[in-house]
Specification:
mainly alpha
Length: about 270
């Protein structure tokens, strides 16, 4: 073994050895450069993904903020309608029967879109956001998640409230009056929580400069109160029977305002 070492050292001093060393060095350097460029390319790719995701979330947050502004705007209409229902319940309890009553409607129902944020998380793009930025987006969308849950609860409670809608004359007991007052209280709490969540979501987006598309928000926030059924008088035509529910004109409305490719979602209802 010791006798072969001089021969090996002599090999590297020869022109052939030097050429071989240069070739090995070139290969190693090429690999390192390729790995470096690959890492850079990956980072640049994620930078574009994050930029694209943030732009898409601005549009989504604009719609969410607009829907939140809308709920704050119609909140007093909802409270007034609940006051009316409470008065009807009190009178019906004293009389022992319900009066003729048309549709009481319900607060505006929205889908609270969160698909862009969900896809940003599932595609691992969110992991490449700055930590503070990620926390701020998460906080904003938590309020949107809460509004989506509350929206489902609202459908349930307003369906229960619609039990008094009908042609009139049905007997109305003290027990049913208590149940209706409980539903009225729940509806008030949900309405207030919807308004609060909408305010908090917008405050986070503005305070931390997350950005939102104001045109999307204005589609909701600038809509006049006269366009909301909850801000209009109770329906003047009582239905022929009891067992009513919200969305009595939902099919007609869906056909009147269809989803199209042109606007990506139809006119907001």
């Amino acid at each position: 073994m010791t006798e072969t070492r001089p021969h090996r050292l002599l090999f590297w001093r020869t022109e052939r050895g030097a050429k071989f060393a240069r070739e090995v060095g070139s290969v190693v350097l090429g690999v390192l450069i390729a790995l470096g460029f690959g890492a850079i390319a990956t980072e640049v790719g994620w930078w574009f993904e994050v930029r694209t995701a943030r732009h898409a979330m601005k549009v989504e947050l604009g719609e969410l903020i607009g829907q939140g502004d809308e709920r704050e705007k119609v909140s007093h209409c909802v409270e007034h309608r609940l006051d009316q229902i409470a008065g009807i319940v009190d009178a019906a309890e004293k009389a022992g029967k319900l009066p003729p009553l048309g549709s009481i409607q319900l607060p505006p129902w929205r889908t609270w879109p969160r698909g862009i944020w969900a896809s940003t998380q599932s595609a691992q793009t969110a992991a490449h956001l700055d930590r503070d930025l990620l926390d701020n987006y998460s906080s904003a969308y938590e309020f949107a998640d809460q509004m989506a849950v509350i929206s489902v609860r609202e459908l349930d409670v307003w369906t229960r409230l619609s039990a008094i809608v009908g042609p009139g004359g049905r007997s109305f007991s003290n027990v049913e009056a208590i149940q209706m007052r409980n539903a009225i209280g729940e509806a008030r709490m949900l309405n207030r929580m919807m308004g609060l969540n909408g305010i908090r979501l917008k405050q986070i987006v503005v305070a931390y400069d997350l950005g939102y598309e104001q045109d999307s928000a204005r589609e909701y926030s600038e809509r006049p109160l006269s366009a909301y059924s909850i801000c209009k008088p109770i329906g003047s035509t009582p239905p022929a029977m009891y067992g009513q529910a919200p969305f009595d004109d939902v099919l007609r409305t869906a056909h009147k305002f269809p989803i199209t490719r042109k606007d990506g979602g139809g006119q907001k209802r």
